[in-house]
Predict the structure.
Amino acid sequence: MIKKFFLRIIPVVILAAALAFVFRSYLFASYVVEGESMEPTLYDGNMMMVNKVAYDLADVDRFDVIVFHATKQTDYVKRVIGLPGDKIVYKNDKLYVNGKYVEEEFLEPFKKVSDDKPYTKDFTLVETTGKTTVPEGKLFVMGDNRDNSLDSRKFGFVSMDRLVGKVDITYWPVSQLELSFAN
């Protein structure tokens, strides 16, 4: 009887292990946030699940939170601000894309209302990158912690072929559980 049980359970365990391997290796990756550049959205030590096939199935959207290879050894998590062909300007703490104001609702609760200092300092794409528009195959990314983020304002555009994927779930700490694909 025990032998029959093990003979039935072994294929199930093997299948489950194979599926877990495929999911972990090809479809999703787990990351731990290091640093403060994405606060208040993501905090140092948060764990997140990155969908590695999201952009095989759909285009990158403005305000997606992505992970990309910054160097051979380091991956960054940032928010997409500019897509190919976009003209980006920040003026008076407001984002303008192609001359039109675009609200960043995710930042509103965190903007410093009490002082006169803007949450995002004024800049144009030309001032920061030397280009008038985001080139084809590139993205302009920023951290949500605008005063403390190494992002496209410093290192330039991110090539789409360096994308790891889209942050879909923040699962640790549990109190900050967020299902990004529900947006």
User: Anything to note?
Assistant: The first helix runs from residue 2 to 27. The chain has a mean pLDDT of 84.
